[in-house]
Write a structure and sequence with these properties.
heterodimer, A: about 600 residues, mainly alpha, Na+/H+ antiporter like fold, Rossmann fold, 2 domains, B: about 180 residues, alpha/beta, six-stranded parallel sheet, 6 helices
Chain lengths: ~600, ~180
């Protein structure tokens, strides 16, 4: 590849991503679908900017490798040990159920049993890339669903190693090496894992220390990349999943003092390469084959995903997914994974799969990845409709509490809700993380799961009757959307909103939020007050100073509000946050001088009145 | 203009004070400052309070009696707002010649306020601290309006006092030229 063509490729990839992903996000399709569409557009069946998607796909797998490394960094071995049951029992149950269902299905299609077995096992694997990206986007990672899904995905990555070794064993015509070759392969695999263990446990940290001492930031970055890519290369040469090797290295470095530095260094690479990975998958969708045998392809895509989803739904309960999230679990993990590409590739060389089956299966997997975001949207819709259709229980508590609706039940919403509960008021809660739904219900909250920016969901939750709607979500965009919806559809409710920062505050107030609090303001003020006390200012005086500061600060914001009516000004304000801070400092100083001039606190201290 | 400084920590639970306030708040020249609503955190905005009183011709202090005195927030209001150089001392003429009416309610029946009663003194014994605060700020002390046994008296008694409250304010407005 010449320099100029590499540059052209980079421009094409970046351009397609920048164009498609924000549009997909805007349409609530998720970034994964955006990248996939970008890939279809620029690929050999679209605008033909890129002709060789296979090599790009191979390169972009480094994105998945980096992601697994970063996930490993978050999990120290102790934590991983506590997950062993979820990984080995939950993961095995998922693999067994899904593989069995798909195996049976493929047998029925007339595949010989060896081929059906390999394909069944390969299709039972889900896409770590798609699932992790989706869960991160939906904030599901820290939930029970997130943990179970991750354990399952981890087990799949482990299973992939023997699976690849299995292919030549099952092939009629043994591939080069044959059965003894695969034994050697297994040995090499074990050797590679041991090597990664040694590198991660004993070599990396001392080297990082030496490099950190030189103070050369870019060398540190270079080394972290070298580490991950080196481990990946080692693993791939040994025939082991690169992602699994990287994950192992990550786990071994989780206790390192350089963990955060590693994370911040790799994060942007991971993001870009993951995007590239999805683009490459999009490019590799073989539209010629799709046009040639549309029924076979669609039947295969839908058939295997239906079987897999059914099997996932079946095992979801026993392996610890909450009752409300089982369909989400099934929809999210139903697609085929990137490892299936590898397995089908090996199967092709071993001529295990008859006829066009390898191409058909590869295409089905790529399409299934593209279907995942759509499947999730369908799932959300169905859930919202079910929530809306659920008859309200004839409980009197509900209408008492129907007065308050809390959208977003994270750190902020929880405190609001608990204060209400402690004051004998119940509230209706809307959130996209139903982790604690059962607990909340026991305490008399009504809980709705789903996207808070959907009017039908707000309506089902009783927004029309609400006296107060509290918007406590953490994404600024979502928060503004909810405010707009509420102002338009539920004009009677008072709107209480959480602002992330000052521009958000203005935006909320301008769009009609009645009561807005900046989320960090009160705690920062409290810290300032405590600091004054630590400096020797008496407790009560420190409180009064904080009170005065709060009052002036809030007044200033409200005074500025009329000047912030047009959007351009607010955008300018958001851009010039630093200038605004400077102006605020100036106002604070002027205020201080004015106060001293009046002398309430200074030399003209009040004398005894009597 | 007449400014009513209303100091009740639980305005919704009050019977007498709420009825009294209702009987006058519709008067066009009356402006009510419900201190416990304005300053739930006791962080009194001294400037805002002083600005609010600047144009008033008369000031009303309305509150239930707490421990023979004003509720805590109104006492804090005295401490903060009635500052030297503003309400008293050099240049402290901001309140001079404004009329001041004290409207208060007590829990016990009037019989409790006697040397033999549960409060050990006649009610007049508890007035001077308030009266002198007002006079020290050069305001003119009006004859107070007091409702004893506010928890027990019947609605008619409250209504009667409410009528005289309204009449007193109308008279004050007329006397000070505050009426429209």
């Amino acid at each position: 590849m010449s320099d100029s063509s590499m540059l052209v490729d980079a421009v094409v990839y970046l351009g397609a991503a920048v164009l498609c992903v924000p549009i997909a996000k805007r349409l609530r399709l998720g970034s994964v679908l955006g990248y996939l569409i970008a890939g279809c557009l620029i690929g050999p069946f679209g605008l033909r900017f890129v002709q060789d998607p296979a090599s790009t796909l191979h390169f972009a797998e480094i994105g998945v490798v980096l992601m697994l490394f970063l996930i490993g960094l978050e999990l120290d071995p102790k934590h991983l040990w506590t997950m062993r049951r979820a990984v080995f029992v939950g993961g095995a149950a998922q693999m067994a159920a899904c593989a069995a269902a798909i195996f049976a299905g493929l047998l029925a299609c007339g595949l010989p049993w060896q081929a059906a077995l390999v394909a069944g096992l390969a299709l039972a694997l889900s896409s770590t890339a798609v699932c992790m990206q989706t869960m991160a986007e939906r904030n599901l990672l820290p939930t029970a669903l997130g943990r179970t899904s991750f354990a399952v995905l981890l087990f799949q990555d482990i299973t992939a190693i023997p699976l690849v070794a299995l292919v030549p064993l099952l092939a009629d015509a043994p591939a080069e090496g044959g059965s003894s070759g695969s034994a050697v392969g297994l040995l090499r695999g074990v050797g590679a894992v041991v090597a990664v263990f040694v590198i991660g446990r004993f070599v990396t940290n001392p080297v990082l220390r030496v490099i950190a001492r030189t103070g050369l930031r870019e060398v540190f970055t270079a080394f972290t990349l070298l580490l991950v890519l080196g481990v990946a290369e080692l693993m791939s040469r040994a025939g082991v999943s690169m992602a699994l090797g990287a994950f192992l290295a990550g786990v071994l470095l989780a206790g390192s003092e350089y963990r955060h530095a590693l994370e911040t260094d790799l994060e942007p690479f991971k993001g870009l390469l993951m995007g590239l990975f999805f683009i490459a998958v999009g490019m590799s969708i073989d539209f010629a084959l799709l046009a040639d045998r549309p029924l076979a392809v669609l039947g295969l895509v839908l058939g295997f995903q239906l079987l897999k989803a059914a099997a996932l739904r079946l095992v979801a309960g026993p392996i610890g997914v909450g009752s409300r999230q089982r369909w989400l679990f099934a929809a999210m993990l139903a697609q085929g994974g990137e490892f299936a590409f590898v397995v089908f590739g090996v199967a092709r060389t071993a001529s295990l799969l008859p006829g066009q089956w390898d191409s058909l299966l590869t295409l089905a997997v790529a399409l299934s990845m593209a279907l995942t975001p759509i499947l999730l949207i369908v799932h959300d819709r169905a859930l919202a409709r079910a929530a809306a259709a659920t008859p309200r229980e004839p409980d009197t508590i509900e209408d008492q509490g129907g007065g308050v609706l809390i959208a977003g039940f994270g750190r902020v919403g929880q405190i609001v809700g608990r204060l209400l509960l402690a004051s004998g008021k119940t509230a209706t809660i809307l959130d996209h993380d139903p982790d604690q739904i059962e607990m909340l219900k026991r305490f008399g909250f009504r809980v709705f799961y789903g996207d808070v920016t959907r009017v039908d969901l707000l309506e089902a939750a009783g927004a029309a009757r609400a006296k107060v709607i509290v918007v406590a979500v953490d994404e600024i965009e979502t928060s503004l959307e909810v405010i707009d919806l509420a102002r338009e559809h539920f004009p009677k409710a008072r709107l209480v909103a959480r602002a992330r920062n000052v521009p958000h505050y203005f935006e909320l107030r301008t769009r009609g939020a009645d009561i807005v609090e900046r989320e960090t303001f009160e705690s920062a003020l409290q810290l300032g007050r405590r600091t004054l006390e630590a400096l020797g200012v008496r407790a009560h005086e420190a409180r009064e100073r904080a009170d005065a500061f709060r009052r002036h600060n809030k007044k200033m914001l409200e005074d500025l509000l009329p000047h912030m009516q047009d959007e351009a000004q607010r955008v300018a304000l958001a851009r010039s946050a630093r200038d605004e801070l400077e102006r605020q400092f100036e106002r604070d100083r002027a205020e201080l001088e004015r106060e001293h001039g009046h002398g309430w606190h200074a030399e003209r201290e009040r004398s005894d009145a009597s | 203009m007449i400014v009513i400084l209303y100091a009740h920590p639980y305005p919704d639970r009050s019977r007498a004070n709420r009825a009294l306030l209702r009987s006058v708040e519709d008067l066009p020249y009356v402006s009510v400052r419900s201190l416990y609503d304005l300053y739930p955190d006791f962080a009194i905005d001294v400037e805002a309070e002083q600005r609010a009183l600047a144009d008033a011709s008369a000031v009303v202090l309305q509150h239930p009696m707490y421990w023979y005195s004003v509720p805590g927030l109104l006492k804090l209001w005295f401490d903060k707002v009635l500052a030297r150089g503003w309400a008293y001392g050099d240049g402290g003429d901001a309140l001079a010649d404004k009329r001041c009416l004290w409207v208060t309610t007590t829990g016990a029946p009037e019989s409790g306020f006697s040397p033999e009663g549960m409060h050990g003194h006649s009610f007049h014994a508890f007035v001077p601290a308030i009266e002198q605060t007002v006079r020290f700020c050069k305001m003119r002390w009006e004859e107070p309006l007091v409702l004893h046994g506010a928890h027990r008296v019947d609605d008619e008694r409250i209504a009667e006092l409410a009528r005289s409250y309204r009449a007193r304010l109308e008279a004050l407005a007329g006397a000070t030229g505050g009426a429209p």
